[in-house]
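User: Assemble these into one structure.

Assistant: Restating your components, then the assembled model:
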Amino acid sequence: MVIDLTGKIALVTGGARGIGRETSLRLAEAGARVVINYQKSLEAAEALKAELAGRGLETDLFQADVSKPEEVDALFARIRDRHGRLDILVNNAGIIKDTLLLNMDLSDWDRVHDVNLKGAFLCTRAAAELMMLHHAGKIINIASVGAIRGGRGQTNYASSKGGLLAFTRACAVELGSKGIQVNAVLPGMIQTDMSRLVRKRAGETLLERIPMGRFGEPTEVAHLVVFLASDRADYITGQAIAVDGGFSVA
Ligand code: NAP
């Protein structure tokens, strides 16, 4: 199956590192013009832009904290001015601040929700406005298996990702008649900076709980995102698909 995203404009939040980086890369390889949002990782963003430019693939970089309304406004103003449209939004930006419930500070609760859930809301609202102009669009929310399976020390993260899943379904209902499909991808334990500490501390125990007996690669998540972003997925909306080696069904 060949997926061709030529002529499409895509935005990947947190698109310079980890799953976001692979997603930016795969979308660009499929032909999309990718706007790579980053918050802190300027160097990684520039390296990715240079790597893709070397292969003749043009990208745009834009620094913004997705939890800040004024920065999201500036990001979308740039997209409107430069491209006049948006076809694909990947709400990938995310953080963890793991702590057992009784030790959890309100600030850790709030920050995780601000980035993982409020950030997705702000970007989705702005994207939907642009997508409605041409009655088409794909929104892919990177949630987590943590949205459907509890994990110790992750009450804030699980709540934010569970919220993102519910948000995905409600958006799918509201935006279906506008030609916009909204889906969620639920990664399991994927080999990125985010999961490094957990893998180091509990790697062997975790592997025993994954039927496929290995951790996932960022690109394995990105491949599903590219499919959901394409016209091959035109009749799929409101769904949550895990990329987790069977972890969530074991
Ligand atoms: P990662 O390597 O830690 O990357 C996180 C990304 O989010 C970075 O690109 C970072 O950008 C960006 N980000 C964080 N805060 C941001 C903000 N306020 N505004 C804009 N961007 C922000 O993590 P990852 O594993 O690739 O995670 C990507 C997504 O997958 C997250 O939503 C995560 O919850 C989800 N996920 C990951 C796993 C896993 O096992 N790795 C499992 C389930 C779900 P900067 O570096 O520029 O700040």
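The longest strand covers residues 180-187.
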